[in-house]
Amino acid sequence: MNVLKETRGEKFFRVLEKNAVPILFLAICAIGIPFSGYSLNYLGQEVITRISRNSFLIIALLVPIMAGMGLNFGMTLGAMAGQIGLIFITDWGIGGIPGMVLAMILSTPISAFLGWMCGKILNMAKGREMVTSYIIGFFINGLYQLIVLYGMGAVIPIKSPALILPRGYGIRNTVNLISLRKSLDNIWAIKVFGLSVPVMTLIVIALLCVFIVWFRKTKLGQDMRAVGQDMEVARAAGIKVEHTRIVSIVISTILAGYGMILYLQNIGTLNTYNSHMQIGMFSIAALLVGGATVNRAGIGNVFLGVTLFHLMFIVSPMAGKNLIGQAQLGEYFRVFVSYGVITIALVLYEVRKRRDKARVGRLLAQDQTDVKEVK
Amino acid sequence: MIRVRQLIKSFGWPRIIIALFLLSLFIIAPMVGVKVSSSLSDTIARFGMNGIMVLAMVPMVHSGCGLNFGLPLGIIAGLLGGTLSIQFGFLGGSSFIMAVLLTTPFAVLFGFGYGKLLNKVKGGEMMIATYVGFSSVAFMCMMWLLLPYTSPTMVWGYTGSGLRTTISTEGFYLHVLNDFLKVQIGENFSFPTGMMLFFALMAFIVWAFLHTKTGTAMTAVGSNPVFARASGINIDRTRTLSVIMSTWLGAIGILVYQQSFGFIQLYMGPFYMALPAVSAILIGGASVNKATITNVVVGTFLFQGILTMTPSVMNSLIHTDMSEVIRIVVSNGMILYALTRKSEATR
């Protein structure tokens, strides 16, 4: 007797609302693609590139969602750690796969420390994890600037003149990662229907997916889901709630650091002071476009999200130019959509949270009337 | 001794540290060759510029809607009012008055919708407010390109359509408040009496409002919604009203800012304007659900003081401009401190 009696219309709208964001994006892409005038081949290539570039970062968001901590806006912390690793290996002149692995190794302790700190702070701000993690991102960005713009070259030894600003300390605005560029992508790139597919990168991403699926089944993963469902019940069951939450953020931060290194090896240049700030927003928007919500997200959402979000991102400037004659308009449009989709997802989450409470209430009321009728 | 300790506790450690930091900057300043009089004058001017935007936090905090991270929405209403006033060809002082009048309907409309939205998401207001601000700024980026403005001082010269990224207020409302009854002492110190009076007027209006029946109801809704409902207050309507007030104050705030600054900044200009205002009021001693006019005054003065003093003092002291980093760390650290305080964590 756990099914709520509701009219077909109500059910239809519930399903529609559940998938509102992906449907909306499908519509935007369906309108935008013909107007942009891009060939399907070009779009396919772009989508494959973006999937291999961004998926790892987005998957990093899944663990805190499992633990009920919402969207981890603090993933920029991991991104910063990854960038610090990349700056060091560039200075030491280590390129290729060894460089990448070394950068990952260097980023791990930094990410772990930042993640642990972030988790500690978020435990003090239960119930508003998202806005707090968002501000932590800004706060650590200040410290990152302090270290990279003033510390490096002055306190932390950096020798390469290609990295250091002419004044003698601080890292330049852009760091060329030419020795690293596409080193993973090119290991095993095959051509399928004229599209080049970076198989090795995709294998790494697939391995991460397997890890996430496996992780869900471990004791720690189960604990996290229990904490995500109800903190008090989990605590009563003997789970260390605070500890579990910190671990989930630490894992997410470390993964975000690796993801950032993967992302930058594909792009090939590091914008020292900007790259990490945008990455959080784009990853979160992409995940939400894939139909994830603040408390439920799976691997399917990641890939659907990357595809739809980046299709929109690629076609909108050209579509804007061809429709209204201003490419600038399309660019503003995609910025608006990125923020808009996060707004809508957050609002829907809060509204649904309240409506679910009401649903439970109605279910209870229905059960009671049913019992009366039987009598 | 106990008294001193209590005083310190009520004032809060972060505030004391920041105040001492600012004080030490003022002490060091003459030693490294920075003129205190001009620094003080700058601080006061910036206080006037930003004060009303910080004041815009107060109504929403009172009604329990949290810190107004959605300030950019109010700023957009102000931008619309300002550009329309210029478009209609008003000059000088009348352009400022018209800007205020033209802004008001937009601010009320936006605030109403924003308030209705926030009523649907009780408990998650701050995050959603942030993103309402962001997406409204991004939406207006498109609108600034498309809206049919024609005034040659505002649109791009070569296409004749689409507003410029920065528009000068010279000839319109530049310094209309700053120069009203301005007091000039010596070469370097000037006191923008008009702007300060305007801030005082706005602060008085908010203060007086919070002491009316509706204002008291607003405070009740913020501090104890269950009690408020029991005493027959319409919670949703009170909250909406507070959001409208905050939005309107944000709109007026940006107009005052522009008349002193000299430029209207469109497009991505208002994007990050909420964070300085939020941290200013927190530095002044406000928390997520408690804020007074005193918090606004103290906070804005401390925050703007640091912003003005650090670049000049730091520059002459160690020959590097670290002010940006200090600003980021201080302002966001302050917000973090407020968000993590135990007493307010249960809402």
Give a quick set of tags describing it.
heterodimer; A: mainly alpha; ABC transporter involved in vitamin B12 uptake, BtuC; two-stranded antiparallel ribbon; B: 347 residues; mainly alpha; two-stranded antiparallel sheet; 15 helices; 4 strands; globular
Describe the structure.
The complex is a heterodimer of chains A (375) and B (347). Chain A has 375 residues and is mainly α. Chain A has a single domain (8-374), classed as ABC transporter involved in vitamin B12 uptake, BtuC. Chain A contains 14 helices and 4 strands. A two-stranded antiparallel ribbon of chain A has the order 1-4. A two-stranded antiparallel ribbon of chain A has the order 2-3. In chain A, β2 (189-192) and β3 (195-198) form a beta hairpin. In chain A, α6 (96-124) runs antiparallel to α11. Chain A starts with 7 loop residues before the first helix and ends with a helix. Chain B is mainly alpha-helical. Chain B has a domain at 37-270. Chain B has helices at 2-11, 13-31, 36-55, 58-62, 71-87, 92-120, 125-146, 193-210, 213-223, 225-230, 235-261, 274-283, 293-318, 323-339, 342-345; strands spanning 166-168, 183-185, 189-191, 263-265. In chain B, the strands form 2 sheets. Chain B has a two-stranded antiparallel sheet. In chain B, strands 2-3 form a two-stranded antiparallel sheet. In chain B, β2 and β3 form a beta hairpin. In chain B, α5 packs across α11. The longest helix of chain B has 29 residues, at 92-120. Residues 343-347 of chain B have low confidence and may be disordered. The chains are: A mainly alpha (375), B mainly alpha (347). The interface between A and B is large, with 40 and 39 residues.
SSE order of chain B in H/E notation?
HHHHHHHEEEHHHHEHHHH
Task: Indicate the radius of gyration of chain A in whole angstroms.
Answer: 23 Å
Average pLDDT, all residues of chain B: 85
SSE run of chain A? HHHHHHHEEEHHHHEHHH
Estimated structural class of chain A: mainly alpha
Radius of gyration from the alpha-carbon trace of chain B, in angstroms: 21 Å
- Our count of domains of chain A comes out at 1
Percent of residues in beta strands of chain B: under 5%
N-end to C-end Cα span of chain B? 34 Å
Instruction: Give the chain pair forming the largest contact, with residue counts.
Output: A-B, 40 and 39 residues
